[in-house]
Amino acid sequence: MSLLPVGTSAPVTGAAPASPVAPVGGPSPAELLDFVRGTAADSALIASLPLDPEGRTWIRLNGPGGSEAWLIGWPPGTGTGWHDHGGSHGAFATASGVLKEDSLAARLPTEGWKTLELAEDVDRERQLTAGEGRAFGRHHVHEVRNESGDTHAVSVHAYYPPLPLMRRYSRTGQVLRLEQVERPEEWQ
């Protein structure tokens, strides 16, 4: 497995069911899940990730079939905030520690809105311990956090096609607001 440069960030704070069909020529969500689970089991790779006590760290990996993949370190108390993956499907698996994912079981429109009121029954929650993973479809909206007060978590993520953008959202109760659209050059 070849690695790309390490990045760091300050802590970041504040969907529909998986689509079974992958774009022609690319890995499916299930294939990406197999990849992230296998990679998360590579103890030498996981140990190679430098961990920062304050901000997330990452190494870009070569994913299968032209996918984009990342090894990510999560200090205690860090998270992504609500976001989507710009129309890419993907998967992630926890390699060490525990991650919590909150997601929406609703398909949101991708354009033409700034604020949406969510129905009461769209929230989903799961905890992923070491070795556990999940795949998701093109319309997945979620946030991922390490809620531990003292233990780093490490995870592996893969997306296909490679992320064209990420939309970031804020949430107050059942109100979701589009806050920002990030392009790859902002996180690579």
Plain-language structure description:
By secondary structure, the protein is mainly β. It has one domain: Jelly Rolls. The chain is built from two helices and 13 strands; from the N terminus they run E-H-H-E-E-E-E-E-E-E-E-E-E-E-E. The strands form three sheets. It has a six-stranded antiparallel sheet with strand order 1-2-3-11-5-9, with helices on one face. It has a four-stranded antiparallel sheet with strand order 4-12-13-7, with no helix packed on it. Strand 2 and strand 3 form a beta hairpin. It starts with a strand and ends in a 6-residue tail after the last strand. The relative contact order is 0.26.
Architecture blueprint of SSEs:
Layout (H helix, E strand, L loop, with lengths): L2 E6 L20 H12 L2 H6 L8 E6 L5 E7 L7 E2 L5 E8 L1 E7 L10 E3 L5 E7 L3 E4 L5 E4 L7 E8 L5 E7 L2 E8 L6
Antiparallel strand pairs: 1-2, 2-3, 3-11, 4-12, 5-9, 5-11, 6-8, 6-10, 7-13, 12-13
Task: Look at the helices and sheets and give the structural class.
Answer: mainly beta
User: How many strand units?
Assistant: 13
Number of domains: 1
Distance between the termini: 19 Å
CATH homology-level superfamily: Jelly Rolls
Largest beta-sheet details? 6 strands, antiparallel
CATH architecture: Sandwich
The protein's oligomeric status is single chain
Strand order of the largest sheet: 1-2-3-11-5-9
| Helix fraction by DSSP (H/I, runs of at least 4) | under 10%
Overall body shape: globular
Helical region count? Answer: 2
Order of helices and strands: EHHEEEEEEEEEEEE
CATH fold-level topology: Jelly Rolls
Output the CATH class name.
Mainly Beta
Radius of gyration from the alpha-carbon trace, in angstroms: 16 Å
